[in-house]
Design brief:
This is DUF2283 domain-containing protein. It comes from Neomoorella humiferrea. The chain has one domain. 0% of the residues lie in helices and 39% in strands. It is built from no helices and five strands.
Length: 69
């Protein structure tokens, strides 16, 4: 995984991409207003969180925690 891209839409949607968005093939609802975005092999390459609210935070300075598992 080279980098993670985050996009926040003012309609309260957060999109997170682990791979090239052009590889999107199918989306699957996983519950809790999260949609998994998969490539043609079924690998999750991104996700979309619906109704993601950020109260009074500068979106350009979001804290991010990462872990390698």
């Amino acid at each position: 995984m080279e980098k993670i891209r985050l996009y926040y839409d003012k309609a309260n949607t957060l999109n997170m991409w682990f791979d090239d968005p052009e590889k999107e093939y199918i989306c699957e609802e996983s519950g809790e207003e999260v949609i998994l975005i998969k490539d043609k092999n079924g690998k999750v390459i991104g996700l979309e969180k619906l109704n993601f609210l950020i109260p009074n935070v500068n979106i350009n300075e979001l804290p991010l925690e990462t872990a390698i598992i």
